[in-house]
Input
Amino acid sequence: MKHGEFTERPSGLPPPRMSPVSATGIPVPTSVGPGAVHPDHIGAPGEYPFTRGIFPDGYNGRMWTIRQYSGFGTAEESNERYKFLLAQGQTGLSVALDLPTQCGYDPTHPMARSEIGKVGVSLSNLSEAEILFQGLDLAKISTSFTINGTAAIVYAMYLAVADKQGVPRDKLTGTIQNDILKEYVARGTWIFPVKPSMRLVADSILYSNDVSPRFNAISIAGAHVRDAGCTAAEEMAYTLANGLAYVDELQARGGDVEKFAKRLSFFFYVHMDFFDEIAKFRAGRRLWAKLMKERYGAIDPKAQHFRFGVVCGGSSLVAPQPYNNVIRVAVETMAAVLGGAQSIFTCAFDEAFQIPTETSAELAVRTQQIIAFESGIGRTVDPLGGSYFLEQHTDRMEEAITKVMGEIDAYGGVVRAIEEGWIQMRLAERGLERKLKADSGESVIVGQNHFRREGEQIAVGDVFTLDSDRRAARAGEIPAGAGHAQPGGRRHGAGAADRGGAQRPREPDAAPGRLLPCLCDGGRDGVRPEEGMGRVQGAGEPMTTQTTERPLQGKRILIGKPGLDGHDIGAKIIALTLRNAGAEVIYTGLRRSPEQIARVAVDEGVDALGLSILSGSHKELVVDVFACLRELDAADIKVFVGGTIPHPDQQALRDLGVAGVYTADMPLADVVAALARALS
Amino acid sequence: MSGVAPPLDRRALGLALTRIANIRSADALAAAGDPPATQARRIGLTGAPGAGKSTLAGRLALSRLDRGRLGVLAIDPTSPKTGGAILGDRIRMDDLAGSENLFIRSFGSRSAADGLTDNLHELLETMDRFGFDEVIVETVGVGQAEVAARTQVDTLILVIPPDAGDVVQAMKAGIMEVADIFAINKADMPSAAKMAIEVKRIIALTHRGHDGNDGDGGGGWVPPVVLTSQADPDSIVQLSAQVDRHAEWLRASGEQAARALARRRYWLRRWLERNAQQIIDREPAAFFEMPRAQQMTTLLEQLGRLPGGGVV
Output
C-alpha cells in the first residue's frame, strides 16, 4: 500500500454517525453525573458480588493468560508451531482441532476426506496426541482445547499423554470447552441429542474434578452465539442460562456445587463497543455470583467466582483494509483487560480471509504484551470502577441480561428452547438484522461499508498453505490395528472399548453409571457411546418478512452445507434472505456429503444450488459436488458458493464452473440481485 | 412389489415435479391427462405445528422401505407476503438419504390454504406414473388440513403431541371422521400415556354411539391410537402395522372405491374453486354492480374458455 493516497470511494451510504444507543441497544446519555451511581453496586475487588473482579489484587497477583488459537495439519506441524509460540512468550496453548476430530469422524470416513487438518490438528488416536505434545512438559503448560462433541475423548487422551510422560494428573492445568449446548445453537459439532449430551458433559466434569482438580472440564461459551450475530447482553444471557443448565445437570448427577462450581469457566467474544463489553463482563460477574449464592446456596467464594476467557476479533474483523483489524484487536483487548478477563486470545488480523501467517500470529501475541507491559492499564484492579457512566451502564447491562434470561425461563428453560429451535431462530433473526445494518451503513465498519478506498488490495503477506502431501500421507498411514480403518470408514468409537486396556462393558444408557471412567479405562484413544442414541437437527425456521419485492419468485434454491463445518448462521441468513425475495429455499442442514447435496438438488428439482463453506475446503468440496451433479445428469444446475473464500480462490472457483461467489461482506441486496440475474 | 419397475429416473422426476407444481390452475385440467393405470398407496400425516410430523414421517418411511419404491412429499408453509418459503422438513428426514428406493421432495403450500400445495393431485399422479408403490404426504398443520388431506390419501394419520388436550376436546364429536389412525407422538413425555387414554376414551364413546360393535369384524373401522416416539423403533413398527391393517380394511370393506370417488369429486371441486377465485379476484368493482345472474353467466363463460374447460 502506498502512503498519501486516501481517495475515498463514495459508498452511496448516508454519512456515518455515532448512535445514541450502544451496540447492545442500551441508551447512552451525553454525560452522566453522580446521581446515576448506586454506591452499593460498586463494592470492592475480590468481594461479593465481585462486580469489580474476583481477586483483590487483579493482575498484580497473576497476569492474564496470553493464548493463541493454533493447530493445523498434522500433529508434527502443530507441535512445531506450539514450540515456536511458547518460545515467543506465550504462556498457554490453545489447541485447534480439525472438524473430523470435532465431529467424531475417523480420518478414513468419506465425510472427513477433504477436512483432515484443515481448521485444526487431526487427533484421531493416542499416538497423534503423543506427537502433538512431544517435548512439551504438561506439568508446566496450560492447554486449552476447543473441543465439544468429543471433548470427553480428547480429555481422556490428554490424561493418557500425561500418564506416559509421568506427569501426575493433579498437576494438569488447562481447559476443554465441552460446552455442548451452544453447539446446537451456533457451532454445530454436536453428535448426540441434547439430553444424553448433557449427561456426558456432567460426567466428564465430575470425573475431572476428582482426578485433575486444576483442570477446567468445561468452558461455557457465549462466543459463538455472539459471533453469529446476537448482542453483548444476549451473549451473556444465553451463556449464563447455559451455565445454570449445567449446574442443574451436575447436581442431578450427584455433584456438589461447592466443588464443581469452582471449576466452571466461561468464554466470550469481545466486539467493538468498548463500554458495552466492559459492562458485560462486570454485570455477568455480579449476576453469576448472585445466582450461585442465592439460587444454589454456594458459600465458598471460589464457587461464586465467574472466571472467563475471551477472544478478541472474530466476526468484528473484516477482509477489506485488513490492517484496520490490528487496531480493532487492540481496542477489544483493552476492553477485555478492563473487564477483568482471566485469559485472552487475540485473533490475527488476517483471520477474516486466510489462515494466519507466523507474522500475523506473532503480532497478535505482541498486541497483548504491549497492553500488558507497556500501557500499564492492568496495574490497578478495575480502574474504571466508580465511573458514573460505567457503573450506570453496568446496571443497565445487568437489566438487559436479566430480561433475556427471563424470556428463556418463560419458554421453559434453555434445554427446551434449544431442542425446539427457539434460540436458533432468535439468533438467525439477529444475524440477519446485524447484516442488514452493516449493508445499510447504519453500523459503521471502517473500510468495509464506510471509508473505502479505490483499488485496494485485500491479500496481505503470504497465504499460508498446508503441507498437503504430508497430510494425505498421514491419513493413509493410520494403523488398521488401532480399530480406525473399519469397513466403509465408520465413525470411530463404536468398537473402541475392545482395544487395549481393561475390557469394561459400556452401558451408555444405564442411568446411574458415569461415563468417564469407562472412557478413560477402556478406550484410551476414543470411545463414543454413539450407538443407540439418535441425532437431532435444527431446522430452518419461518420468520417475519421484511421485503415485498419478489425478484426470485418461483425459483427453487437449495442451500447446502457440505463438509463438517458447523457454522451455519451464514447459510441461515442467506436462506431467509432468499425466502424474503420470493424463492422456495431448501436447506440441507449440517454435515452433508457432496453426494447427498447433489442428490437433494436433483430430487428437489432446484434451479440453483448454493454452497456455504467456511472451513477452507471449498475447492475440494466444489470439485466433488460438480462431479456428483454430472453423475446424476444434472450439470445444468447453477452452483453458487458463499463463505470465507480468499480472493485468489474466488477466480479458481469460477474457473471450476461456479456461477457466483458471495462473501460475507457483500450486501445481501447485491446477492439477491446477482442471483436473480443469473437465474433469469 | 416393484421388482420389475425400471430404475427411477430421479432427474426426470425432479424436473417433472417442478414443472407440474408451477402449472397455473387454469392449465391444470389440460395437463392432468388421464389417471395413471396404477396408483401408489397414499399415506397422509397431518397435525399441528410442532407435533413432530416430519420426524415421524421420516421414521415411518424408513420402516416401510422394504415394500418397494417409496416417495415422501413434504409440504411447508409459503409466506403469503413474499411468496417464498423455507422448506426445512427434509432436514428431519436426515437418516433417509441414500436409498435408491426413496425419493423425498419438499413443496411450499403456495396459494393452497388447506394445508396442501397447489396441484397436489397432479403431483401425486406424477408419482404414480414413475412407478411408486407408496407415497407419504406430510401436510402443513393448519386447522382444516385434515379435511382436505383426507380426500387425497388412503390412510390419514393425525399426529398429536402429548400436551394438546384442547385440540382433542375440540374435535371430540367428530373424532371418527378426522383420521384413520391417531399417533400420540413424543411418547417419552410423561403426559403422552394420559393423552392416549383420553383419545381412546373419546373414540370408544363416539364409536358406541355409532353401531355398538367392538370394531374387529363388522363393517366399521375404529381408529387405533398408537403411542409413537422417534427414539423407540418398536413404536414405529406398530404404527406401520396399523397402516397395513387399515389398507387391508379399505380393500375388504369396499371403502377404497368410495374414497376414490370422493377424490375425483374433490379434484373437480378444487379445480373450479381455484379458477373461479382467480377470475373473481381479477374482476373490477364494476363487475359486482351487474345483476347477480349476469355476474354468474359471465363467470361461467370465462370458466368454459379455460384450456380443457369446455368439458365442464
Q: What stands out?
A: Chain B has two domains: 10-255, 268-311. Residues 255-282 of chain B form the longest helix (28 residues). Residues 209-218 of chain B have pLDDT under 50 and may be disordered.
